[in-house]
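Project outcomes to date are best conveyed with an example. Our students and postdoctoral researchers have been running inverse folding experiments weekly, and each run begins with a structure described purely in tokens. The record below, which covers 165 residues, was selected by the lab manager from last quarter's runs and is presented without edits.
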């Protein structure tokens, strides 16, 4: 199935893969809102430049960005449950906080990125995965700019990079 845009790669009939030079590659999840998709693509490109520069965490950054985009890990068109989907949530958190640098992200940014139109139903999962990442010092959860334990926090929280990311 060809696309209308001549510069866009050819998609398979089901839309799950792109075809480039005769090879099939998993397509990016089309339910990711454009702004978040662009942030993840920007992080992916920065990570690829880091691979070329032989930076230590570069390959993990590429993995996180591609998983958050839905190009790796559990297929985005399948059931959004279980450990495989939790890994996509974790990858999206890590990729977005890396991309934003000193700025924070909202858990709803992650839910919108991985959840499409049903993102609200994923908020508890995002908070649960964020709690696990906070336990590993990969992120810091804040409320009113002060660190909090997300499992105990009530109301809106923000997420920033932790010391181990």
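After processing, the design step wrote out the following sequence:
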């Amino acid at each position: 199935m060809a696309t209308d845009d001549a510069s866009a790669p050819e998609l398979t009939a089901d839309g799950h893969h792109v075809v480039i030079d005769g090879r099939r590659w998993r397509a990016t999840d089309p339910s990711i809102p454009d702004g978040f998709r662009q942030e993840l693509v920007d992080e992916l490109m920065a990570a690829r430049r880091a691979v070329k520069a032989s930076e230590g965490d570069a390959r993990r950054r590429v993995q996180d960005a591609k998983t958050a985009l839905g190009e790796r890990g559990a297929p985005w068109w399948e059931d959004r449950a279980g450990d495989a989907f939790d890994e996509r949530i974790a990858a999206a958190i890590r990729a977005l906080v890396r991309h934003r640098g000193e700025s924070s992200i909202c858990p709803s940014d992650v839910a919108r990125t991985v959840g499409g139109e049903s993102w609200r139903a994923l908020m508890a999962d995002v908070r649960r995965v964020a709690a696990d990442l906070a336990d590993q010092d990969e992120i810091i959860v804040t409320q009113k700019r002060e660190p909090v334990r997300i499992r105990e926090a009530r109301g809106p929280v923000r997420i920033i990079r932790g010391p181990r990311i």
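The domain at 31-161 is CATH 1.10.10.10 (Arc Repressor Mutant, subunit A). Helices lie at 34-52, 58-68, 83-100, 107-115, 123-135. The training component of this project remains on track.
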